[in-house]
Design goal:
Helix content is about 35%, strand content about 10%. The protein has 15 helices and 13 strands. Strand 6 and strand 7 form a beta hairpin. It has 2 domains: about 220 residues, P-loop containing nucleotide triphosphate hydrolases (Rossmann fold); about 110 residues, Orthogonal Bundle (Helicase, Ruva Protein, domain 3), CATH 1.10.8.80. The strands form 5 sheets. It has a 5-stranded parallel β-sheet. The longest helix is centred in the last third of the chain and has 17 residues.
Length: about 450
């Protein structure tokens, strides 16, 4: 009975997560990495939201690596490390660190009232006391450590549990290949040492794109990412919204949520499919209006509707998911049964994707491995010990979203048989990876 209660509590915690948290959780369960994208103007907000998710939902330290066309290998390696504040001098007026924490960001979605994105976050305190600041060299500035001091007593920089690589697609190919080596070997070489990634390690590529199918990095690194998710800024940023609401002078009254909107009004205006409505009476996983009209589905669309008493999670509270919870879900995913009919359905989807008009590449063996892994990982989140066809379809959308590359019209296969180039261009003009996946799922019959 106690085990059943624990499982039910774990399921309730899963149902309280939004799509961004679910993407991170699924990656942690499989010990893989993911790509998350949003509109270009909302990348800063998405990055900060993911940093807060790492700290408050999973209790993990995080660091933000801001990439650009001139990022060097040394810059990339140094930004991965959490440098204890005892090794870094406070940023002064002449410091290269941007100290402007007030004012607004360039995004139209929300004002900025949080620490700068280059600030590292270590809620567990495993990398040293205090806050962490970006150090270009990854080591202490000269003169801060006495030459006579013992190096054994000095806290050493560590790779953060969660690395948020913002605009990784803008980094030079050499830096992206270095990121691939980090993900493959869980190690990175600096000029003075070899740094090893922690046991709980998640690398998230945060990109700006008009849609999830347009968010890509270099091909080999792109294929290494386990899953992809595109976040609509209109769905909101839960933790950032909580911070803003907590800073408001007005206190919500009875029957109002933290936004000052009545429960009835919130039910009619909520646009987050799996965004938890936090009100006086509890929370619901409300259907998304935008997803319903666009035909797209989120991670949580297949989850049953639940009502839970949810309180605001404060930074000093225990994380929602401990390492033991993640380990339990990983163990359950390995015990999931996959029927023959479901395997046939999965293989048919893969075959149809490979032969679908407009697909140039992306249906790789690595994708097939991740496809099966994600199918199995989704089952325990729904309280199942077997994979259903709906979970297969959901996994396909997340595994192939970033992998499918559309073919150039002149290289489309029907051109070999005399198709007109203008006709092919017209067919492929508005066709994207999302459309290809939806078309294939509509063509392949699911088992009953």
């Amino acid at each position: 009975m106690a085990a059943a209660d624990d499982d039910q509590q774990l399921l309730q915690k899963v149902h309280s997560l939004n799509d961004l948290e679910l993407a991170a959780l699924l990656s942690l369960i499989a010990r893989e990495h993911c790509l998350i994208s949003t509109n270009p103007e909302a990348v800063d907000e998405l990055t900060e939201e993911l940093r807060l998710i790492a700290a408050r939902t999973f209790g993990l330290s995080s660091t933000v690596v801001s990439c650009h066309a001139h990022t060097t290998l040394d810059d990339f390696a140094a930004a991965l490390l959490l440098v204890p504040s005892s090794q870094v001098s406070p940023p002064g007026p002449s410091s290269s660190i941007n100290n402007n924490t007030s004012g607004r960001s360039g995004s139209p979605y929300r004002p900025r009232h949080q620490p700068p994105l280059h600030q590292h976050n270590d809620p567990s305190g495993t990398a040293g006391a205090g806050s962490y600041f970006f150090s270009r060299s990854g080591m202490a500035p000269r003169g801060l450590i006495s030459p006579s001091s013992s190096t054994a007593a000095v806290p050493q920089p560590l790779i953060a549990n969660v690395v948020l690589a913002k605009h990784l697609d803008r980094a030079p190919p050499a830096v992206q290949i270095q990121a691939l080596e980090l993900l493959r070997t869980r190690r990175i070489f600096t000029r003075t040492s070899v740094q090893t990634a922690p046991k709980q390690f998640l690398f998230i590529s945060v990109l700006g794109a008009a849609s999830g199918g347009r968010a890509h990095v270099t091909p080999h690194l792109n294929d290494f990412f386990y899953l992809a998710h595109w976040h609509d800024p209109q769905d909101g940023f839960d933790y950032l919204d909580e911070e803003l609401s907590a800073g408001d002078d007005e206190t919500p009254g009875d029957g109002e949520d933290i936004y000052g909107v009545s429960d009835d009004d919130a039910a009619s205006t909520n646009s987050g499919m799996s965004v938890v409505k936090r009100g006086g009476g509890g929370s619901t996983l409300a259907p998304s209006l935008t997803a319903a009209t666009s035909g797209r589905r989120s991670f949580s669309q297949t989850m049953p509707e639940v009502v839970l008493p949810v309180k605001l999670r404060q930074p000093n509270q225990q994380p929602v998911f401990a390492e033991t919870d993640i380990a339990l879900l990983a163990q359950l995913s390995r015990q999931v049964r996959v029927g023959v009919d479901v395997v046939r359905y999965q293989m048919n989807i893969i075959s149809f994707l490979r032969t679908q008009r407009g697909v140039g590449s992306g249906i790789t063996p690595t994708a097939t491995k991740h496809f099966e892994q994600l199918m199995r990982s989704l089952a325990p989140l729904h309280g199942l010990d077997y994979v259903t066809p709906s979970l297969v379809a959901l996994a396909a959308k997340k595994v192939y979203l970033h992998r499918i590359k559309m073919v150039a019209p002149e290289k489309e296969r029907s051109m070999q048989w005399g198709s007109e180039l203008a006709a092919v261009e017209a067919i492929l003009e508005d066709l994207g990876p999302e459309d290809v996946i939806e078309d294939v799922l509509g063509l392949v019959a699911a088992p009953h």
